[in-house]
Design goal:
Layout: E1 6-15, E2 18-28, E3 33-37, H1 44-51, E4 59-64, E5 67-68, E6 76-79, H2 91-97, H3 109-122, H4 138-150, E7 156-160, H5 168-185, E8 188-192, H6 196-202, E9 205-209, E10 215-220, H7 232-252
Parallel strand pairs: 3-8, 3-9, 6-7, 7-8
Antiparallel strand pairs: 1-2, 1-4, 4-5, 9-10
Helix pairs in contact: 2-4, 3-4, 6-7
This protein binds adenosine-5'-diphosphate.
The site of adenosine-5'-diphosphate has 11 residues, from strand 2 and helix 1.
Keywords: ATP-binding, Cell inner membrane, Cell membrane, Membrane, Nucleotide-binding, Transport
Pfam family, one: ABC_tran
GO molecular function: ATP binding; ATP hydrolysis activity
């Protein structure tokens, strides 16, 4: 399966009391992993929700594979900081639940089961398939949430601060897992994060969304995997990104 080609042109979003996105032109290649950084309130989540088809733009367009996005799509999966697992269902049933969402193609029982098994294997949770969500650590719950997305065999993954609530060691594991999953599945991935290091460790490209609702800067992270925070080039980029982030915040102040 190849990743989706995602594009926005002139994407503008106004809420009743404020403007958020102002003519964002963006495109990503199939299988690319793009991180979006920016000050709190810049509109990162709004951008993701608009690309997901959950929010309609005020003007401009979002396209997936050259088709305008008019609502949620079966091949685009979204995950949040809260894993949102249903506490009364086992891990495997939670993962299978992703296949019952609206607009999912009908699958036979056998193929549903196979997809759940493959997704659990991808995130190394096969051994916990019968567990209840209450038995999972934070990292395992987030892996189950990722498996729920993967069972849908998405061509695009939209992740909104998925590791924001995890401790540092678990977060580092999840970052490695994410890179592995994206490379293995080929899903085009947009990751909203407030963590510059996370963006540098996982992304092919980093966008900085400013408080003015536009992409104010962009970096290609041309460092092969596995990446480690002490790699000099990443350290240099970190300083550049931090300065750009500070500039974008002081302009808004
Ligand atoms: P970020 O993810 O960068 O922190 P958000 O996209 O969550 O930013 O929010 C951008 C701004 O839009 C914030 O000021 C937020 O309060 C406002 N906002 C977000 N969602 C809505 C909504 N549904 N209705 C009105 N305002 C909203």
């Amino acid at each position: 399966m190849t990743g989706a080609r995602i594009r926005t042109s002139g994407l503008t979003l106004r809420y009743p009391n404020r403007s958020v996105l102002q003519g964002v032109d963006f495109s990503m290649e199939p299988g690319e992993l793009v991180a979006i950084l920016g000050p709190s309130g810049a509109g990162k989540s709004s951008f993701l929700r608009t690309v997901a088809g959950l929010v309609r733009p005020s003007s401009g367009m979002v396209q997936v594979d050259d088709q305008p996005v008019a609502g949620p799509r079966a091949d685009v999966a979204l995950a949040f900081q809260d894993p949102c697992l249903l506490p009364w269902l086992s891990v495997e049933r939670n993962v299978a639940f992703g296949l019952t969402f609206a607009r999912q193609p009908h699958l036979s029982r056998a193929s549903r089961k196979e997809r759940v098994t493959l997704a659990l294997r991808e995130v190394a949770l096969e051994h916990s398939r019968t567990w209840a969500p209450s038995q999972l650590s934070g990292g395992m719950a987030q892996r189950a949430a990722l498996a729920r997305c993967l069972a849908r065999q998405p061509r695009a993954l939209l992740l909104d601060e998925p590791f924001g609530a995890l401790d540092e060691v678990t977060r580092a594991d999840m970052q490695q897992l994410l890179v592995k999953v994206v490379r293995h599945t080929g899903a085009s991935t947009l990751l909203v994060t407030h963590d510059i290091d996370e963006a540098l460790l996982v992304a092919d490209r980093i966008l900085l969304l400013g408080n003015n609702g536009t992409v104010v800067d962009e970096w290609t992270v041309d460092v092969p995997a596995p990446r480690a925070p002490h790699i000099q080039k990443l350290g240099e980029m970190r300083i550049q990104i931090l300065r750009a982030l500070q500039n974008s915040m002081s302009r808004a102040a």
